Amino acid sequence: EVTRLERVFSRFDATSDLSRLNRAAGSGPIPVAEPLAELTELSIGYTQLTRGAFDVTVGPLVVLWLEAERAGRLPSAEALAAARSRVGPAGVGVDRAANTVELRLPGAMLDLGGIAKGWTLDRLAEKLREAGVSRALLAFGQSSICALGKPAGWDGWGILLGDASGGYAGTAQLDDRSISVSGSLGQYAEIAGRRYGHVIDPGTGEPLTRARVAAALAADGARAEALSKALLILGEH
Q: Which residue in 21, 116, 131, 221 has the fewest CB atoms around it within 10 Å?
């Protein structure tokens, strides 16, 4: 199931539904696999919930900063403005009945890397419940974790939370809940002597540079993923 969904959502696979959709930006509604239509619609809702901090249309900015990393220099103001002009939920149309998604602007691009893992864990948890499994812990590394029930004799699944300095911030207990942990500099590029993280603020178009970690607990993994990214960007507001 994971392999099947990865073939839908991966931006690294040129044959995925997501890659095909991105290449067709500006060409009208495109038929896609049902999971892509569902997750795109859900993600746009989380953009509204987070005051724009979580935005899967950030793809043009992701590409811009990857190119900056390879070139070893910051993008020009013109290039940054051009990429930002293609970002925003107003440029996306979803028709769930027809399973089509439209990227209205040429050069627009979805990047589901900030939510697809949590959404996939939700689907795996559903399959386990349907199979009669009542206790399980599902994890895609330390960043995306989904718990079914709790271990026998315990109040929940114990999770150790890291902090931005490489130490530990505390613990969490999961009982039929999900957690997403996001770090601003977990992955970063060094350009002109400064570290630029892989999480980009859609409002400014620039990556985060301050080291911080955000964790979000939610009833489902997709919501936890969206909220942890938004918390990183919004900060202590």
A: 131
